[in-house]
Specification:
about 475 residues; two-stranded antiparallel sheet; 2 strands
């Protein structure tokens, strides 16, 4: 009994210790078998559109490097300057110096005028120097992707890669389309001059022929490539403005539209800043060359025909075409930027005057709101009516007041966006002057007037004289 009492008053035994956690077993690493279908290591990591864009960008970069428009290091700059000095200046100067017309007693005004050749050499070399100096410097600062605004860090969209590749392809097609006719005219003129020089000196005629063609092709490629490069930059931004016009017709928050437009205007201001010196110097160079050539051809007393003056005509056309390509690209993007105002005004008017405007439209596009009577916006209320309306809204119409405030807030947001776009149209500017269609028409009138005068002195008048002499001979 005592043992039982002692056992009854004894404390309970301590609890059993918790079980130890199981020791994790090392799992074997599974090695895939060769029969399983895994993508090969050489599979492309980029989508097809991105690979296509990369291919065209590599082609464009290689072409610009060969043309001397993308020199970045000091060695490349020195090499480009040396090639430009040798091929663009020394080679045509040697062709003029080796011409048989320098010999005493040789009269060759019918197929070569030394003064015309010198002016053509200076005008082409000056335009090419402006292109290389301005474009290569910016290319070295930003690189090809940032220079064209197709870098992902600058907001490049994946869905635009196909359009980017198409525009770069159009760059080469348009350049070739302008080079081939001018090259054909240049070769025809040089062959005619070669046939006259062949009687004086064969080896001199061959040197003059090849030196003139090589130098002209190099300088013309540089001038037209730089102009087409600026045109390409503008055409790539046209894609963004066209997309912005389509997005603007949707029902979204006006703040989103404003942020997108600020980014587009920022890109246009960068383009204007990078190319303003190039556009200004190219315009001054081309205009000065046209005036000088026009003055010399007018003051020249001797005969002017296609053989001795055809080089002047080809050079004038190439320079004016390069300038017009630049201005056309700038005017095109300025027109797209200014057209955004009309699209935004139409969007605001449709959102305000449509049947859904009587509903409080929220920024996210929901229209499941109560209807506001049209008389509420058009009637002039007295003080007692306003007090009754206020009392009614406190008693049971607070929901309608909230929807009215939401509708008016959306209306004022759209109105502020339209006013912002109206006062900030954007576009390519040249030291404050917007390069739009009016600016393009003015410059085009001046340049076409000059080049048509030059063509009339070098091609039209000699052709009419030849036709009249042929008719009188018959």
């Amino acid at each position: 009994m005592a043992n039982a009492d002692r056992l009854a008053g004894a404390p309970p035994p301590p609890p059993a210790p918790p079980p130890l956690p199981p020791i994790p077993t090392r799992t074997a690493i599974r090695v895939p078998s060769a029969s399983e279908n895994y993508p090969p290591l050489s599979a492309p990591l980029l989508p097809p559109t991105d690979a296509q864009l990369e291919r065209w960008l590599r082609r464009l970069g290689a072409f610009l490097a060969e043309s001397g428009l993308s020199a970045s290091t000091r060695m490349e700059v020195a090499f480009t300057a040396s090639v430009l000095a040798v091929v663009g200046v020394a080679l045509p100067a040697a062709a003029v110096a080796l011409s048989p017309c320098h010999d005493d007693g040789v009269v060759c005004d019918d197929y070569e005028v030394e003064l015309f050749e010198q002016f053509v050499m200076v005008s082409q070399a000056s335009a090419a120097t402006v292109a290389v100096a301005c474009v290569s410097r910016k290319m070295a600062m930003y690189g090809l992707r940032k220079f064209l605004f197709v870098d992902p860090e600058l907001g490049m969209r994946i869905r635009f890669q196909k359009e980017y590749a198409a525009r770069i392809e159009d760059f080469f097609r348009t350049l070739l389309w302008w080079l081939l006719p001018c090259f054909a005219v240049k070769v025809t003129r040089e062959i005619l001059r070669f046939s006259h020089m062949l009687h004086e000196s064969t080896w001199r005629a061959c040197i003059v022929l090849f030196a003139s063609i090589i130098s002209w092709m190099y300088l013309t490629t540089i001038v037209l490539s730089s102009s087409m490069l600026f045109n390409l930059v503008c055409n790539l931004q046209v894609i963004h403005f066209d997309d912005y016009g389509k997005v603007l017709e949707q029902d979204a928050d006006p703040l989103v539209y404003m942020k997108e437009h600020l980014q587009l205007r920022h890109n246009l201001s960068k383009i204007s800043h990078r190319f303003r010196m190039f556009l200004l110097l190219l315009f001054l160079s081309v205009t000065a060359s046209q005036f000088a050539i026009l003055y010399k051809t007018t003051a020249y007393d001797g005969p002017i025909n296609f053989t001795n003056g055809g080089d002047i005509a080809v050079s004038s056309v190439v320079q004016v075409v390069g300038l017009v390509l630049c201005l056309h690209g700038a005017a095109k993007i300025s027109h797209r930027a200014q057209n955004i105002v009309a699209i935004a005004s139409r969007w605001h008017a449709l959102a305000t005057c449509s049947t859904d405007s009587t509903y409080g439209s929220t920024p996210n596009g929901s229209t499941h709101l109560a209807t506001f009577p049209s008389q509420m916006f058009l009637r002039d209320y007295s003080e007692s009516d306003l007090e009754s309306l206020e009392g009614g809204s406190v008693n049971g119409g607070s929901h309608n007041s909230a929807q009215l405030a939401s509708y008016m807030s959306s209306y004022h947001k759209r109105e502020s966006l339209v006013l912002y776009l109206l006062t900030n149209p954007g576009g390519i500017t040249l030291y404050g002057w917007t390069v739009d269609r009016t600016f393009l028409n003015t410059i085009l009138t001046v340049e076409l007037t000059l080049v048509l005068f030059v063509l009339s002195k070098t091609i039209v008048s000699p052709a009419s004289t030849l036709v009249s002499s042929y008719m009188s001979f018959r």
